[in-house]
Amino acid sequence: MTRHDRSTPAVPGASSSESHRSWHRGTVANEATRPRAGWLVVLTLLVLALLGVLIFVAAWVVGGRALPQINSVQSLLPQGVQSSQQEVEESTDGAAGVPLTSTDLNLIPVDASDATLPGAPESTEIQQIPLESLNALKSLGWSVPHLSGFGLTAEYAETGVVEDIRTVQLRLTDGEHRLDISETRPEESDVELAALESKLEGLVDTSASVRETLTLRTGDECELFISEGAQEWTAAMGSGRVQYVVTSDLPAETAEQISNWVMATDRSRVQVLPIVPTGSERLERGFEELLAWLTD
Asked: In this structure, what are the phi and psi dihedrals at residue 244, rounded to the nearest 5 degrees?
């Protein structure tokens, strides 16, 4: 006997229809999800961009507020240092009338033989300029902060004033050789520079040196002294209201090249002299200030 199943007979094509409807619903859901996910990505990017703009603006504003007002080399010197020779003399057990040298003042951490400036008396007060403040000299019209090259880096900078004439000296070194570059300028417009030869007194032993006169590429003349006994040379040059004295133990063959470099930098300094700090300097200072606030 044949037994018939009384359940609902299968409708041909029903299974395929149901699968089609399920696939269609899944497709619609996926299509609805994609725009939603896309908007989330766009919204995230917009928030990040807005945050970046806010940080950029904040750094610009803070950097502008943080920029120091630099109007003289003296304003770059560390505060709280005894700048009066008379005050120091009074504090030395009552011993008065004894001239103090720059070394006695303990103003710069260098050897006594290095604590001198070309043409300056031994009693001249010499102060250290923080290396991080060197760039500020650019806006004051000084060339020494522009001088970097030959694989040398700044070791220290010092300055002193004699009769309203200031000298800034920068020492560059590669760990083996040294290059001292002094730049002298009057602090007032009505002050005249002394003769260039006066800056060599006590610095160069002319009787034991070979002297040459060079004509540099800028058209300026340079007096070059090459020591016969020591491996050292000194070059002196000037133009208008500035004088340079360069002393080094680098090979004498480099003297003319370095002298050309110094005077070419002096010529181009006017072209790169910033009237106001550059945008990158302002932003850099602003980011540093913001970072300091966050880490405090």
From this structure: -125, 140
Q: Is 246 left (phi over 0), alpha (psi -120 to 50) or beta?
A: beta
Give the largest CA-CA distance in the chain: 142
Q: Which residues contact 277 (CB under 8 A, 6 or more apart)?
A: 67, 139
Question: Considering just the CA atoms, what is the radius of gyration of the chain in Å?
Answer: 36
Cα dist from 152 to 93, 111, 173, 226, whole Å: 43, 20, 5, 21
* Strand ranges across the sheet with 242-248: 127-129, 153-162, 165-173, 178-186, 242-248, 233-239, 221-227, 209-215
End-to-end, the C-alpha distance of the chain in Å comes to 95
| Amino acid identity at 276 | V
In the chain, % helix, strand, coil (3-state, to 5) comes to 40, 20, 40
What does the alpha-carbon distance between residue 115 and residue 159 come to, in Å, rounded to a whole number?
10
Burial zone of 106 (CB within 10 Å; 0-12 exposed, 13-18 middle, 19+ buried): exposed
**What secondary structure letter does DSSP report for 61?**
H
Convert the pLDDT of each residue in 1-25 to its tens digit. 445 445 445 445 445 555 555 545 5
Contact 246, 235 (CB under 8 A): yes
Phi, psi of 49 (to 5 degrees): -65, -40
**Closest to 170 in 3D by CA, of 185, 186, 154, 184:** 154
pTM for the model stands at 0.61
Angle, CA of 197, 160 and 82, to the nearest 5°:
155
Assigned token pair, 262: 């110094």
For residue 85, the SS3 value is helix
pLDDT per residue as tens digits for the range 141-200: 899 988 877 789 999 999 999 989 999 999 999 999 999 999 999 988 888 998 998 889
What type of residue is 181? I
The residue type of 268 is S
